[in-house]
Amino acid sequence: MKRNAGHCRAGLRRRVGADAVAESLVCAGRSTRRALLRAAVAWLALASTRAARAQQPRLPKIGYLLLTPLIEPPTPERRAFLDGLKDYGYVPGKTIEIVYASAENERDFLDAMSADLVKQNVDVIVTSGMIALGAAQKATRTIPIVMLAIGDPVGTGVTSSLAKPDQNITGMSFISSDLAGKRVQLVKEMAPATKRIAVLWDSRNPNARAEYHATIAAAKSLGIAAESVAVARDGELWRALDQARARKSDALYVAFEGGLVASNRTMIAEYGRRHRLPVVSGWSSLTEAGGLLSYGTDIAAVYRRAAYYVHRILKGAKPGELPIEQPTKFELVINLKTAKVLGIKIPNSILVSADKVIE
Asked: Cis omega before residue 206 (within 30°)?
């Protein structure tokens, strides 16, 4: 049967997929039919793949919400969380799907990103930092939320109980404010002439605020003047560091807050080394980047343990059935290379008690 060109063009406009290919085979000349046939085979293969995917069971879906940029390769903390998931057989893209939502340090974006995770029907939301947790709380009261690491969930009003978390939240906590006194004491032992310290903290974060007040009290008890160097966004960090140096501070205490430190740990550490300003914190990763010392929990281990909560929830457990855990092991990390740059001699009594010495 003959078909003219006009008929063929009209037919092709009305058809899609396999019908269009079949019409093309009829209308085309012999020289192009072989190519069209190959296209038909490819289209059918693609359609078959899509159909097979549609029949596959849905992978469990984790929403990963954070204020700070998503760094690749993963930070040590996020890598620890992924390794923890792997321990339970969860491999992204194979046995589980992870939907990352980063506000790129723009707090105003967090609410919308949290709402989007809810729309995507994630099975659980994990949050990095107190600010991200607050946004997730606003977005849902039904989807389970796992805290990767929060300082004081009860004191900040996240939950009324560690043993039996209320609402839809559980996960890992860490002790930071309670350790502020120990950190200040270590500074005094290493540099007895210390008279003034600057306390760098994120004013957006209730945990950081609590640690700031604890640090002020601890410093006062040791006869050290402590001054607030607060930031409301990461863009203010340089100004805050210059402010601490202008006040002739003898040391810089960095409050334990993931959003501020995680994205800027290298810069904070290098600033301290360049301007001979000892940096002390609860972050071992900050000390490894060039800070002088840290005393606190192994935060990577806390993130890895958080994977247990995700696993239990995906298996049907409710957040209220999973007590919030607090760390029982703490580590002292000393950067001896930085101490030499700063001209500080670390007493042997501190060196022998260090869990890790960077040389």
From this structure: no
Its pTM stands at: 0.75
CA atoms within 13 A on the CB side of 200: 34
In the chain, DSSP finds a helix count (H) and a strand count (E) of 14, 12
Rounded CA gap, 282 and 207, in Å? 13
CA 223 vs CA 26, 152, 154, 193, 216: distances in Å: 93, 27, 31, 11, 11
- Sheet containing strand 124-128, strands side by side: 97-102, 61-66, 124-128, 145-150, 169-173
Q: Which stretches of the chain are assigned E, i.e. beta strand?
A: 61-66, 97-102, 124-128, 145-150, 169-173, 196-202, 225-231, 251-254, 279-281, 293-297, 330-335, 356-358
Question: CB–CB of 136/319 below 8 Å?
Answer: no
Determine the Cα–Cα distance for residues 133 and 149; give it in Å rounded to an integer: 10
* pLDDT given at position 253: 96
β-bridge mates for residue 66, sequence order: 102, 128
How many CB atoms within 10 Å of residue 182?
A: 14
Q: What is d(CA 118, CA 191) in angstroms, rounded to the nearest whole number?
A: 50
CA 181 to chain CA centroid, Å, is 26
pLDDT computed for residue 65 by the predictor: 96
What six digits make up the tokens of 103?
């506000």
Q: Is the dihedral of CA 104, 110, 112, 115 positive or negative?
A: positive
Number of neighbouring beta carbons within 10 Å of residue 63: 27
pLDDT at 56: 66
What is the C-alpha separation between 292 and 334, in angstroms, rounded?
A: 6
pLDDT < 50 stretches in the chain:
1-27, 30, 33, 36-37, 40-41, 43-44, 48-49, 51-52
Identify the CA nearest to 258 among candidates 110, 75, 125.
75
Q: What is the pLDDT of residue 38?
A: 54
Which structure tokens are listed for 163?
A: 């043993």
Report whether 192 contacts 251 (CB < 8 A): no
Return the structure tokens found at 149: 């690491």
Percentage, residues of the chain above pLDDT 70: 83
List beta partners, residue 147: 127, 171
CA dist 67 and 131 (Å) reads 7
